[in-house]
Each structure stands twice: as structure tokens, then as C-alpha cells.
Amino acid sequence: MEITIHARGVSLAADFAEIAKERIERLNRFNVPIERIVIEIIHETNPHHGKNSSHFVKITSRGAGPLLRAEASAFNDLAAFDEAAETIEFQLRKKHERKKEINRDTLRKRKAI
User: Fold this and answer.
1) Which of 10, 15, 90, 21 lies closest to 57, judged by CA?
2) Distance from C-alpha of 33 to C-alpha of 112, rounded to nearest angstrom
3) pLDDT tens column, 44-64
């Protein structure tokens, strides 16, 4: 899985890339094929938007696999990323559970076959 981080109008912490890649790599446990994930971090400098929503994060999957998209805003980039990553994880969990094959045959149907 290829992970790309775009920072627009913000300087990221030194460990942000490592934390983001570790968190995204953990999503492989759902066995849903994802080719590429793009993380965009945007910093809003307008003071009228308030401090609680000054950092905005978008996570999007591209290429092969399902289309996953999540957006979040928070007081710093890591908090916004965590919220968006939770949304992506929830979407992947739903895809994984739908993919499971549940056999709903009764014993009578199995004996008839």
C-alpha cells in the first residue's frame, strides 16, 4: 500500500509521517485490497473559523479496491488525523464483514443436496 501525505499551508511535526503510516498500515488486518491512500492536511489561517477547527484532514483511497473517504477537523493535525482514520477504519470493517461468507443453509437443505 502506497501512502502519500500532502501538507498545504502547514508545517507538520517530524513524527507525523511515521505515526500516520503506522496507523494506516494497521488497516491491512481487514484483508481489503487498497492500492494507494492520500492524506491531505490543510491549515485554515482565518481566525473566524476558531481554534477548534483550524486543522483539516482528508483521507482518500485511490486505485484498486474500494473508494474510502473521510474528513475531519480539530485543533491540531494529529487529532484531526485520528478522527479521520477512525472513520476509514469503520468503513473498512464494514467492507470486511460484508465480504464474509455466512452459510445460512439448514440441515434439511444440506441432506437434500
Assistant:
1) 10
2) 37
3) 777 676 666 788 999 999 888
